[in-house]
Amino acid sequence: MSLNTYGHLFRVTTWGESHGPALGATVDGCPPGVPITEEMLQVWLNMRKPGQNKFTTQRREADAVEILSGTFEGVTTGTPIQLMIRNTDQRSKDYGEIAEKFRPGHADITYWQKYGIRDYRGGGRSSARETAARVAAGGVARAALAQLAPGLSITGYMVGMGERDIDRANFDWAQISQNPFWTPDAQAAEDWAIYLDGLRKAGSSVGALIEVTIKGCPPGLGAPIYGKLDTDLAAAMMSINAVKGVEIGEGMAAARLTGEANADEISMGENGPEFSSNHAGGILGGISTGQDIVVRFSVKPTSSILTPRGTITKSGEASEIVTKGRHDPCVGIRAVPVAEAMAAAVVLDHLLLDRGQTGGLRGPIGG
Amino acid sequence: MSLNTYGHLFRVTTWGESHGPALGATVDGCPPGVPITEEMLQVWLNMRKPGQNKFTTQRREADAVEILSGTFEGVTTGTPIQLMIRNTDQRSKDYGEIAEKFRPGHADITYWQKYGIRDYRGGGRSSARETAARVAAGGVARAALAQLAPGLSITGYMVGMGERDIDRANFDWAQISQNPFWTPDAQAAEDWAIYLDGLRKAGSSVGALIEVTIKGCPPGLGAPIYGKLDTDLAAAMMSINAVKGVEIGEGMAAARLTGEANADEISMGENGPEFSSNHAGGILGGISTGQDIVVRFSVKPTSSILTPRGTITKSGEASEIVTKGRHDPCVGIRAVPVAEAMAAAVVLDHLLLDRGQTGGLRGPIGG
Amino acid sequence: MSLNTYGHLFRVTTWGESHGPALGATVDGCPPGVPITEEMLQVWLNMRKPGQNKFTTQRREADAVEILSGTFEGVTTGTPIQLMIRNTDQRSKDYGEIAEKFRPGHADITYWQKYGIRDYRGGGRSSARETAARVAAGGVARAALAQLAPGLSITGYMVGMGERDIDRANFDWAQISQNPFWTPDAQAAEDWAIYLDGLRKAGSSVGALIEVTIKGCPPGLGAPIYGKLDTDLAAAMMSINAVKGVEIGEGMAAARLTGEANADEISMGENGPEFSSNHAGGILGGISTGQDIVVRFSVKPTSSILTPRGTITKSGEASEIVTKGRHDPCVGIRAVPVAEAMAAAVVLDHLLLDRGQTGGLRGPIGG
Amino acid sequence: MSLNTYGHLFRVTTWGESHGPALGATVDGCPPGVPITEEMLQVWLNMRKPGQNKFTTQRREADAVEILSGTFEGVTTGTPIQLMIRNTDQRSKDYGEIAEKFRPGHADITYWQKYGIRDYRGGGRSSARETAARVAAGGVARAALAQLAPGLSITGYMVGMGERDIDRANFDWAQISQNPFWTPDAQAAEDWAIYLDGLRKAGSSVGALIEVTIKGCPPGLGAPIYGKLDTDLAAAMMSINAVKGVEIGEGMAAARLTGEANADEISMGENGPEFSSNHAGGILGGISTGQDIVVRFSVKPTSSILTPRGTITKSGEASEIVTKGRHDPCVGIRAVPVAEAMAAAVVLDHLLLDRGQTGGLRGPIGG
Asked: Phi and psi of B153, rounded to 5°?
């Protein structure tokens, strides 16, 4: 990962600001021969699109993606794919206050200090709008994975909002797409709807816990020591706006276990090695085991709230700020499709890396 | 981060296996004119060195570092620095069992599946011995930081072992070097000594929580979007053996907060902006604020335990394995100096990156 | 250099095909605070633009560049700059023949063999149109250099066309912009006009020799061993379509010299070291000396000619092909602004790299 | 290519100075399962080793390579391979003069200006001794190529010394290993022996022209636009000490040709496409055609000569310098095995890259 690019072989560079004419992603290194259309990518973008219900920002963006290069007759050619999304709902408004004051919890102060200049309109480059480009690029990665690892699926979902966690006993994959929170627990969804509506009306916000499960990942993906699959997944999730923690498998709770409790015992199944449990989250020594890969991360509450917060101006004077405008009371909701996209990019990248170095050979186990 | 190399401008490539003749780090991109001696680096290696007390593996390694290149008359020249550490205590023993069976929780099975070959002696490349090379490289980074950011300090410490957390009311920086656990809570140290001794004698192991605080980091380090300072710190920590979760500031707990609770309000102090709290962990939008940078991570319990665990052989037959040998009952202890080293490398790297792009200019705040 | 990206810190990724909707460059790592406008960049694009005289392809492209991101109020913010150029003159025509047959000297056959798919319209990604994106990105680099190295200038010019070289005795910098060949020898320009007109009418083409001189480059830029300034300049030039050879200073002729003849003796001038000659082309050990940096390269004749050439079809049948359409009789002419752009990107990149590693310190010579 | 590392997937980082304890190469990304022994690598090192005849420096170095990591039971494991070569013949001598004065044609002055410090003993990092590490790494690349592209061969040879070129009519592959100049023209070898002996006795030196031919390279290797196979080969050769120009196929002479003369017409042979000529040097659009890949480069004359040359001291005073010591009268001779090694690394790297992105699929031609 470096600056505005991620990936080793499947490399994505995103560009664009919240209130500029457009934003997008330059996708390099995609295998040739992958069918890609704007319609296919739009499906994923629509998952992330704002303004779909009262729990996400009311900014109205079509988030329509245009493929400007890299495909021919609907198929990737192996050359860079440019994905552009125009900004269409940049409300003209007075940015005077936000231009002069630093919003607590935002990147306003750090961008200013680092660069001596910042595009303060809607957060500029640090806006969550940047993640639309990731989702588009992730759509390309998914299409390539559909060819190269047909059984692989990537699903994100919310497992906690504020102090309220899902009940894992209620976990139902089919529920995830049935509620505005992408949660597998239908009961939690009902509860959260009331809870979040209250916060929204109060002009407040709340954090969230998101989990991504990758099923059907072949064993052997990942590269020791600094190119570990878990390292790259952690970096990918931590790079999403507002993420403050990342876990693989047991995650932080691994600190609490003894060696006996943590061991995922191995046995031989019909299709290869099986494990008695998955504390490891599908990765050992940085390399996939073939089990489900489980990544979890926290999203901090939206910093834009209606309660006044103390801050300073560029000239150093004490002040207060209330962030009006159109904001998500729980920005974690829209992080779900973003996390899926990042996971897809990382897994595809490692699949290509592995194919490059080993040719996909695998040390045989059993007959 | 890519494969066996980390860093953008200050780049470290580690090499070597647990039971080969030597291991080391190739450090490229270090600024010229930094005083470096083997004695200076040895101080840090001694912190990580095994066999220092009954709580770490009894393998006896001098971990003596040799500087083979990149310095002249005790000062870096700006060319690659080769740091070599010889392996001296590779006990000759029968590796028959470990060669044929996959130890649960180890990288045995994934290395085998990926590469079709593995150096099974002591874990080969996936051994924690690799981290000695990181500590040596981190020593170089510290020496450069001492020149470029004189007030900066990096301190790692243990804040939890198994279910037992420190009492933050007892936090005393001076205590950290006074106990075998690098913990700032003297009372916890006493408690843990008894607790861990019991686990050790039982051939068991336990996980740990480590925290690293970077004080005096200048504001403006870090690079949005995929080269964020927190992204790179998270990747650096996740790349350490046995780490399963990484947090910045509030970390996973950020999911639990409301926007009001999470806001770090800003005021003007004598030396620039000050913050009412540090939920952000010193980083906003991927860029340092000047506050303490706080990184926390979990280390899983050592997988090598005396209780038999079910596994399979390379030929796919069911079996059991007991990992004898010299192991750490809490490998988290030795992760403390490793994490400090990784943090030093990341911060130096970002300091050089920032200097490269911005020349170190800073947007002024106040008079 | 990797795939569609070049540069270490100042990184340019180009994208787009000859006959797609647009092409462009994603420029990452530019210093903040650099004034950039579309008008400024257009000046350079107009130098490369086709259809300006009878010696370049009659394709009519406005080559109008749009800045989609990375600037605010006309100044760079330090975030990625997206430069887009729409294709406007993609003549609709029958591509049947070119789709089935491989044009000798073109990348048709290799793209097909590598990717199993190719955008055959106008050469797709391998078209010289890609270089428009480089010129736009080079304009950004020039603007940054104007701030960071004010005395630095980069000038490309043609020194040979076919068998006809310029007479160095006629060298006049002021002539370069006065003729369609960017040549400093007014007499050669007259001669070449007649010569090339003959070739053009005959449907033939011819190669060229281009030279780029960088004046005012500070000493100390470049990085040994594999990041040498000459290595990166050579790679940058060799990456331009149709380039087959690159030279620094004496270049290939260095093979002919003795050590005595080749030595650039050093003396002390008023402003630092001076050299009796410049066989080295301004670079020693990969690092700039402060002398003029001199890079020379050859451009092969345009492969698209009216004389039928033997080839095969995708199904392997023998055939002939005549490449009609709008082509440059001497594509080297338009390589001049491209080479300047590449040189600007390389020098800026090394200036940032040097500032990152050394902080711009310089070992003093003399009082 | 970046600083002290080259390659994308097969990455080599060299380290070490002429007069330090050792130098070497860290090789990352090698495929697993490749047989490598010190003996195998030594064969290549012995080709480059100094002191083998009167035409190379009389420094006596065993250049014995040690494999410190990355192999197990004589086979690569896919982890980093550390190759170390001890310096054994660093004559203790008075470096007083060379420490204070800058030798013309050497990197003394630029290293000093850039870094403010330099290891002046024998050229330090800029010494040609660094190329021993490249040759060792190239040996690893050759071993991997022997597995992955069995019919591929890489042969370097000298085609010109000073003003004296070989007669291509005398070209005999079998002669190359039969003379101290690695030249395929036995008659030239005799002539050059007398010529170079004269220069050597006079304390002079001369430049050389080297060519490398890669036979049996599969079509489809290389990556457009900035990762072209010719771009990477050019960079690889230009990174060798004393190289001032690089050519592919026709090279600089391509400037002299018309389109008709330059066209390599295509026909269908028994084993796929064939070409009537090879002006392209085996590469079209940056991608291999399957023809012989032909790279040519110039090596400047050794700058260390016995004739006094004017220079300055660090304090800026005018002086003269005679470079005594043990030097190569034609350093181009030892560049031959170095160039072969670099070519091997580049081709392997592109083979892995291609396998990563395309899986080695090939667009079929003919039935």
From this structure: -130, 150
